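Methods — Computational structure assignment.
A single polypeptide chain was analysed. Its primary sequence is given first, followed by the predicted tertiary structure written as structure tokens.
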Amino acid sequence: MSIELEQLNDDPGGGRHVSVSLDNVLGSGPLQARAAYLHVPFCFHKCHYCDFYSIVDTQDRQEVFVDRMDRELGLIGSRCENPLSAVFIGGGTPTLLRPELLARLLESVALHLPLSSDCEWTVEANPETVDERIAQVLVEGGVNRVSVGCQSFQPSSLKMLERHHEPRNVGRAVRHVRAAGIDSINLDLIMGVPGSVLSEWSDDLEQALALEPDHLSCYGLQYEPNTPLSRKLEMGQVERLGDDLEASMYEHTVARLSKAGFEQYEISNWSRPGRACRHNLVYWRSENWLAFGPSASGHVDGTRWKVTPRLSEWLAATSSVPVVDVERLDDLTRTGERLMLEFRLVDGIEVGELERLLEHFDPDGERRLAVVEGLRDGLLHEDAGRMKLTHAGRLLADTLLSRLV
């Protein structure tokens, strides 16, 4: 396929991108997808650990952003053949949109995308941005799940992360959402913040559990390249926690959340029975999802792309969706990614399917060797016809999974 390329200007994060029309990537025919992700790039402050595309909001481009998103939803949504089971609006801070504009965005989603009758519709929220009006807008727009980015309840950890919210406002946000009629709530927490100790992480878990969420995402802190936090690390201004302390935090998380009735279904995610995040499962199972908004990434049948990560270029596109970083994955690459992602799930992968993949898509035997050595070293085990990470394997998952991919 011949694709005409257009050179874009430097984006705010540096580097150059080459854009193509999404129609040139996927064609103009019907699309099969299970989910959709929408990216709202506006934030009132850039947290020092965050590498997602976001810009400090001055409210001057919110309205044109929603107008452009409506057009993009119309361009792609009409081609969706099957109902979507999950929609996730993230950022940035979607709830930073003015209430009337947030309402318009939600209306556009409902108008243009074919949503299943039981669609899981999640919106990310910063605790400082959720009041009674925003909560009501979410409910009236059809949202039935809210993910609150609390990250920590410790003022010292929030300061280290340059996360600007008051710990007490997490509970306030949850109360507003529940009072409006949304009872499906996720809380994001980050473990391993420099300077933190096990007792503080334990307190984070207790305060989160006291709010009675039905889902918890507990991520280990990542020092992403080109973020202020990673630069501080390189300059010796912060120090990573030791591996033993991080392992203790993780083991405490597994034990405490199990005692509280949560089921671990992925390395970093726990839920009440039946409340696993449907949208994230689409990612981990390498299924198809659509992408809307600057920097949002999509995947359909082995083709992966990112909507241009530059707001001005995205806003200027009126009749097409400009995308960058287009990859057409071959069978070997798709197999490696599938193994890497599905082994993150507690359920692992069916043994017969694993054997089929290794037989057909492991020409040098490296993946089979990784599985054999994982079994030998106690990182993998076979259980009820499925190959899974052990508890020790989850602690050392990055090393094993990098060999599979």
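Note: Residues 330 and 396 are 28 Å apart (CA to CA).
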